[in-house]
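To make this tangible, this section ends with a sequence with its structure tokens:
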Amino acid sequence: MTTITFELSDDLAERLTQVGDRLPDVLSFALDMAGIPENDIPRPASTSPVWLEAIDFLASGPASQAVIDFKLSAESQARLEELLDWHRSGSLTPQESAELAAYRQINHLFILLKARARHNLAN
């Protein structure tokens, strides 16, 4: 494991201290969300099954309530559980790690979409 030293604001340092030993996961998630690819690992962008499922759903022009009710298929849910189990046991391959990152991205996207859909229905 590599040690990296850098300077940052006191506020950010306090926030990072609170995540403790989860800091590598937090940094990895932040890099994924910023679109910064990992070296030698193909990004599972729009060709991953979970992305294709989300794109197909959104391309159907769903109403706000359908967005709020959206859940991944049972197959995608099962794959996510499998990846999470491997992640917890520390046995993810780089490709599986990239696949899990795609699930994180989809989750973040749908958090935002569902919040906007709820706002639209309330107004």
